[in-house]
Design brief:
The chain is mainly alpha-helical and 134 residues long. It has 5 helices and 3 strands; from the N terminus they run βαβαβααα. 46% of the residues lie in helices and 10% in strands. The chain has one domain: 3-Layer(aba) Sandwich (Aminopeptidase).
Length: 134
């Protein structure tokens, strides 16, 4: 909590679309480049199953974001009932990522193509450095 919006790569039941998650990561990194105070996280949520899993399972391109939640399910660490809470900065950061993702949706293909392009460059370099065994 307090370390920024969470780009959720999946939950207990499934992982979400790699390209869609790369898109959100590129968008978040772009925000961070122009605003060094902006922070975000990337995490596989280890518990629960959310609606994104159902969409993913039925063939929809799925990505997810969330913010860390204090006193999850109203459970205080001391074992008593307590109100849930979030970091306002994290919540505003989530809004910022979603608004910027909507603005940059037309760049989806270009942004998600960065990884395969980088991997292809690395492949070309690696092939030059490999020695052929006689």
């Amino acid at each position: 909590m307090g370390r920024g919006v969470i780009l959720r790569v999946g939950d207990r039941a499934s992982t979400f679309d790699s390209g869609a998650m790369r898109f959100l990561a590129e968008v978040a990194a772009g925000i961070q480049t122009s605003d060094s105070s902006f922070c975000y996280q990337r995490a596989l949520m280890f518990g629960g199953t959310c609606e994104a899993t159902a969409y993913q399972e039925f063939g929809y391109l799925t990505a997810a974001v969330c913010v860390a939640l204090g006193n999850y399910h109203n459970c205080h660490p001391a074992g008593r009932i307590a109100a849930e809470f979030v970091s306002l900065t994290d919540a505003l950061g989530m809004v910022r990522v979603l608004v910027e993702a909507a603005r940059r949706m037309h760049e989806y293909r270009a942004l998600t193509a960065k990884l395969p392009q980088r991997l292809n460059r690395l492949l070309v370099e690696a092939r030059r450095n490999l020695r052929r065994v006689p």
